[in-house]
Design goal:
Number of helices: 5
Number of strands: 0
CATH class: Mainly Alpha
Distance between the termini: 20 Å
Number of domains: 1
CATH architecture: Up-down Bundle
Order of helices and strands: HHHHH
Strand content: under 5%
CATH superfamily: Nucleotidyltransferases  domain 2
Helix content: over 70%
Shape: globular
Radius of gyration: 15 Å
CATH topology: Four Helix Bundle (Hemerythrin (Met), subunit A)
Structural class: mainly alpha
Length: 134
């Protein structure tokens, strides 16, 4: 029997690796400047892969997705994510941190990652682990 090659499952594997790196970074209680930069980078990678997992899954279900915002809105409507506004906030902060580096911004975003965005990604990780049958 040949296993079916499903894009969202492949993408989920990549997301899971980035998510686990982020989880390790979040576990550092008082990060150095370099560790904080790594935490933010892992967040950016995990978030990018998270919305792409959503996109691939939604497209496999027959939906058309043109942007991260579309993927998030569709996931919220389908009940795959519960905190739609927080996901949009995470998208905006990901866009902010991708293009500039400012220490005050980095510290503020670190707090949001730890207390607001990491739990969103953790919930999505659990959701797709279940969908992947793990």
């Amino acid at each position: 029997m040949v296993s079916e090659d499903i894009r969202w499952q492949q993408r989920f594997n990549h997301f899971e690796k980035a998510f686990l790196l982020l989880r390790d970074a979040v576990a550092i209680p008082v990060p150095s400047v370099v560790e904080r930069a790594g935490l933010i980078q892992f967040f950016e990678m995990a978030f990018e892969l998270a919305w792409k997992v959503l996109k691939d899954y939604e497209e496999a279900e027959g939906f058309s997705v043109r942007s991260p915002r579309d993927a998030i809105k569709q996931a919220f409507e389908a009940g795959m994510v519960t905190e739609g506004h927080d996901w949009i906030d995470a998208l905006e902060d990901r866009n902010l941190t991708t293009h500039t580096y400012n220490e005050a911004t980095a510290q503020a975003v670190e707090e949001k990652i730890r207390h607001k965005y990491f739990p969103l990604l953790e919930q999505l990780h659990a959701e797709f682990r279940a969908r992947a049958g793990r």
